[in-house]
Amino acid sequence: MPLPNQRSLSLLSSPPRFFAGIGAVILWTALAFCAPLSADQASNEPIYQEQLLPLLRTYCLDCHAVDGDSEVQLDKDQSALQVQQNRAFWNHVVTQVRSGSMPPADGEVMDAANREKMLETIEKLVNSVDCVQQANPGKVALRRLNRIEYRNTIHDLTGIDYQPSEGFPGDDVGYGFDNIGDVLSLPPLLMEKYLDAAETITGQAIITPLAPRLWEININPATIDNAKKYVRQNGLTLASRGTVTLNTEIPFTGDYVLTMSASGDQGGDDPVRVEIKAGKFQTIVDVPSEAPENYPVSLSLKKGKASIDLTFTNDFYVEGKVDRNFHLHHLHLEGTERQPAKMPPLKLTDNHRKIIFAVPSEKLSAEDATTQVLSRFGSRSFRRPITKGELDRLSKLAAQVRSEGGSYEESIQVAIQAILVSPHFLYRVEQPGKGDPEAPMPLVSQFELASRLSYFLWSSMPDDELLRLAYRGELRDPEKLRDKIRRMIADPRAAHFIENFAGQWLQLRNLDRVQPDTEQFPEFSDATREQMKRETLLLFAEVLRKNLPVTTLLDADYTFLNHDLAKFYGIQGISGDEFRKVALADTPRRGLLTHASVLTITSNAGRTSPVKRGKWIMENLLNTPPPPAPPNVPELDKSELSGTLRERMEQHRANPACAACHNVMDQLGFALENFGPVGHWRTHDGKEKIDSSGKLPDGTEFNGAADLTNLLTHARREQFVRCLAEKTLIYAVGRGTDYYDRCAIDEILAKIEDNDSRYGDMVFAIIASDPFQRVGSRSND
């Protein structure tokens, strides 16, 4: 009976709810297991049985069989289909075989031809995809702007350099980068921070008319002049004609309101009447209610001392029948500063004028001016034309502010605050292209492509030129696109790509956290830390902006130094604080492997670490990260190790569980041993002469940094170039790569191979690739 195909297995795992009873289950199972193999699966089965399985028996199954002791069981999957369904496991096997970790040194020797045959066979079974019929550009999750992108976008949009405070939650990292959509969540605390930030940013960007000063005071009637004889439990009671006086200091000339909370014992034909007098002002207030109510009186008062008299004027008394009295429970005085008839013009900033380019006038209503301002600002904020519905809602919000007494500028402030907390600003929202949304690989829209470009190369919003090209539908014109990319790379804003991509790919951000032993290295300081980082970033910038071969990063015979860093390296003849290009002809240094930045982040506080350095090379230059240490391996007792560093590492590798990875990591790290914990050149470690030789499990030998560099730029050149292409693609599209991305990466590499694999060409090829230009699915089927 043929095996079930993959779709049948997935259906079998969760049959529809309407199948009920044992008969239905039997029928469902029979249908699933009788389904025929697909053509691909049928053709792959002989590959597994006749090609892969014999290799596994020869080189692997002595240790990695189901009936053995190892947790890694290579014969657990017994068909091509099962191998494909266990893709993550077999991709890990590929990594171990390619790196030379497997087979181990004490196992069956695998020659280069069989190693390559095993790799090709597993790759074909696990990751094979028809790049024409089954092409999939992948799909990016709805992606929030990270902290750096948010800061840069706010600056380009408003001119305000708003630095998210320490209260902003940090951005999570995925696949080595902090711009991955899958991990950029929006917790409630961050939303609160965005609300606060929007208010701060608009307050700095937009100048509003100086608001009149406000003042208020609450008064207990028992404390005013002449009140003592009228005090009762609930305030003052004037039982006969009498006057009490409020004396207070008025802070500014303005319009005031005195509010009495009062009531009266009524009697006769008239209500209780109170005369209010302040200077020349005089008025009568009727108090007809026997329950306390508020009675406001408007006053014009000048700055300085003021006396306000309250007089009960119409006492009425008939013994045993009527007694009219006035009760005063509370007083409240509030005022608004009177503005001069002609206000001085506002001192507007360039940021203000950039945002509010239209103001109400005799020829332009406030509504029309608002529409113009919010239409442009909203379109730039959302990185695409604002819709009529969005604009109408924002305009109504601004109109409401004006109806409540706010100025035109304040109404724009409030509307822009709403824009800055909108999902269409905080997130990069993408939808299938309008051309054919049902197509297998629809294009992203022109505006979404503009955003992908700008956030890739600038970590910020598209500029006006990009948006114009998108509006005209010209962004996919090859000549215009290449010209724009060239100018974007030359633009100062490309420094954000250099710092954010290179800083994370090469882990330069870790320099901020490492703490070398300052007793051993007193010359190391925070300034040195920044200079180390800058040297590496300047080399990366040189390779990018001059479109140099990517291998220049590894074998450049020059670097960038200022006086202090040159002195740190022991290089003479460099003066001044400015960094400049310096030849390394007479030094042992070449490329970023000998940069103090890389050497420091891969060391311990007081000694080098071949393990860390080897792991760094495997992860960042060869894209073969070692797996975590097995959970059942006990912690190494360092007290049992003795001898030189190399001898101690050899004792460490004596444990078979450790040897598989350390046979590669340690050897790569040994090649850099001539460079100390903070990057100084040395020939001895204490009294011991340094041995910087290494030998990989596949027999490759090297001695020192120069040999290692030669290995990476020649024998492992394709692996390094592919690694950099994949890392750059991950950063560019904001998602991790999957097996189907191999089609795009192969095409990218093919486009640049004939021109020495130059980095500028690689960037353009990535931008022109399907993962960057199109939207697919996230399926791993």
TrEMBL record:
The record places domain DUF1587 at 143-206
Location of the DUF1585 domain? 698-772
> Where does the record place the DUF1592 domain?
445-571
Outline the extent of the Carbohydrate binding module xylan-binding domain. 258-341
Q: Where is the DUF1588 domain?
A: 589-685
**MF terms in GO:** electron transfer activity; heme binding
Q: Residues in domain Cytochrome C Planctomycete-type?
A: 60-106
Domain (DUF1595): give its ranges: 371-430
Read off the InterPro entries from this record.
CBM60_xylan-bd (IPR031768), Cyt_c-like_dom_sf (IPR036909), Cyt_c_Planctomycete-type (IPR011429), DUF1585 (IPR011478), DUF1587 (IPR013036), DUF1588 (IPR013039), DUF1592 (IPR013042), DUF1595 (IPR013043)
What this protein is called in its record is: Planctomycete cytochrome C
